[in-house]
Amino acid sequence: MISGxxxxxxxxxxxxxxxxxxxxxxxxxxxxxxxxxxxELLRLGSNAVYRLPSLPIVVRIxxxxxxxxxxxxxxxxxxxxxxxxxxxxxxxxxxxQPLVVGGLVVxxxxxxxxSEEFATVGELADLLRRLHWLxxxxxxxxxxxxxxxxxxxSLEGLDGVAGEDREFLEQRAAKLxxxxxxxxxxxxxxxxxxxxxxxxxxxxxxxxxxxxxxDGLALAPREWDLILTAIYYDRYGWHTKTEYAEFVHRYGFxxxxxxxxxxxxxxxxxxxxAWVGHQVTASERAAAEFARRMxxxxxxxxxxxxxxx
Length: 309
What we know:
By secondary structure, the chain is of the alpha+beta class.
């Protein structure tokens, strides 16, 4: 996902801009024993992401300084998955992390590829099936995924949209909360990725698929890891019928045949719309996309016109 940057101060006054983050990057790399000279800024949004030229290492600086605990857990998850020989984003073994520099949280990750290439929907299914077979240790301290609390918090912070839009979303959320509480999940409860979609499965430079974005691993019904692929196909047309059939075949379960599918789809969709709503003041593209999605929610039409962000 892409989020805008307004360049405002974060982390105790550090400007979240290329210029403001330069000393943070330099100090963090120096502390970790890495050379930051010539680092390439890949993204500047909710995170600043740099690629180091001297080693296949990516440096991630989080805009939100409250993410220390979450990023500490993500690093532990990455190390545990490596011990399980699970194909996921790795962290350098020699670097003690996360670091806090200038009030911001810094982590270091092994670079997966030299140019962006996503894996296939079928490979996503393989990785999820394998991930869901793993039994996580209690020492990871994975949180329970509470979608209703997450959605409520997101809507409460939705200050950049029109009041009538926010009221509509809140009413829709209240109805879905009642429907969600009545769901009867059929897959085992356990560890999920939390944002399982094709954008988080990259082709490693050695050829195999790897799962990235390990911040959101949590404990929840496994249906949550299948819903995005289903609605990307069913509602938005971002996947083809053949791709979705391959996903179902390789995972071994078709979420769209489960009676709770529409409720889970509506709830996940609402979370997606709220996320875009947080970007409207920083991006004209996000503002236009939010307006398009709100029209769809109100009319029930036009979801095939949504664009991924």
